[in-house]
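Example record

The entry below shows one chain as it appears in the dataset: sequence first, then structure tokens.
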Amino acid sequence: MRSPRALIPLLSVCAAAAVVTAAATGASIDGLPGGGGPAHADAPAPRPAAVTINAVTWNVCGGPGCPSAAAPAAIAKQIVQRTRATEVGGRKVKTNAVLLQEVCEGQVRTAEKSTGTWTWAFAATPGGASCAQGQGRVGVAIGTDSPLTETRQAKLPAPAGRTRIALCGEVASWATRVCVTRLDPSEGGDWRQKEARALAVLGGGGRVLLGGDFADSPDSPALDPLYGAYAECDQSGSSRTGAMTRQNWQGAAVQKTDYLFIPKSAGVSCSVPATRVRTSDHRPMSAEVRFR
């Protein structure tokens, strides 16, 4: 039986799902194994069945100062369209998972109503801005077309007076953990490296889709922990590369700051639109991930 869909605001997870700090030293989030060990079992388990997951990660820029801040419904419409299909390698494919950043809670609620059997989870950014037209606060979200369970939120290392979070959940039918976050460009590389190290702990050593806006370029040492533990969907061989995803005010792509990390054993194809996306200052990144 399909688990009920749930929209989960920050700190409203049940008592058994308390928020904990995922320290760079390897602390774990409640219910999610840490330390880079097996992500889904404490003892050896049968090899999970092969599965292909079509995933989209996108900073939709739904809050104040964004291109569509005054028209949140336009972004919600774009999100719903992305849940139905996306393009990878010139082919239109059915979407199985979306990882969203700077998304308004109301936009996630709209997507939840429009996507039927999808499961959604949302976490508001601590201290984050409020969205226009009563759309709630800005945060991160995960949507999957198979039941998403054991949803947890974890604090990442952050400078004093700030709170940075990641949102993770498990899709049992894929034997896969899905995690999303948005890092802050105003924080220095040292902090981002600590956050990246904590994200690698949260991702674990099994099947994982770990994505978001990490506020840095692929060649930055701050992302070394993630590139060391995983492959990034848009890199070429061992080179840390990828299409630019962040746009300037004219709509030109100027930097890659959006990522989808997966196990190095997975096969993957990855695409970023070559043309301007007018509703956001980021272009979505789509991937076909093949877990063998």
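Notes for this example: The two ends are 26 Å apart (CA to CA). Confidence is low (pLDDT under 50) at residues 1-41.
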